[in-house]
Design goal:
Length: 165
């Protein structure tokens, strides 16, 4: 038990020099997996530092699955704005805690192979909220976890973050 404690303490002290959140003008890339009831969507996105605590970003996600002869394709596009709480709450620099708003567009295409009927969603635009965090293991690379809720998308996502400098 002592060895595990010492290794954990050493690990945190080594990685405590990472930076976050984004500085003004910096860009970070995000990618990973989202939660879904049917399949596992993948997502890719980028965030841009407007000021030290405020970022804006764009994201795209995609999932497809085929169940009982029904083929479903879902493409999502999202714009978001986040406030990062690190300075306000004196959070250590290797953590990034944020919350914000998002505007979503999702294109659902559902096709029944037996009848060749295709359905497209007639209300694909929605608003939502997100809360999330990142843990940076060095100055450029980290892991992210986010939860969101809204009238078009909800759930969570997990992935990696890379800061371009």
């Amino acid at each position: 038990m002592k060895k595990i404690f010492i290794l954990t303490l050493l690990n945190f002290s080594i990685f405590s020099f990472a930076q976050s959140p984004l500085e003004k003008g910096e860009i970070q890339l995000n990618g990973g997996f989202e939660s879904s009831n049917w399949a596992t969507p993948i997502y890719l996105g980028a965030d841009y530092g407007i000021t030290k605590p405020i970022t804006v970003g764009l994201e795209a996600s995609y999932q497809t699955y085929n169940t009982y002869g029904i083929k479903v394709n879902i493409l999502g596009l999202q714009a978001n704005g986040n406030y990062h709480f690190n300075e306000l709450l004196s959070i250590p620099s290797n953590w990034d805690v944020y919350s914000g708003l998002n505007l979503n567009y999702y294109s659902y295409s559902i096709k029944d192979s037996s009848s060749s009927i295709t359905f497209n969603d007639d209300k694909p635009i929605g608003l939502g909220l997100q809360i999330g965090g990142r843990y940076f293991i060095n100055e450029k690379f980290g892991f992210n976890l986010e939860f969101r809720a809204g009238n078009v998308s909800s759930g969570g996502k997990i992935g990696v973050t890379y800061i371009l400098q």
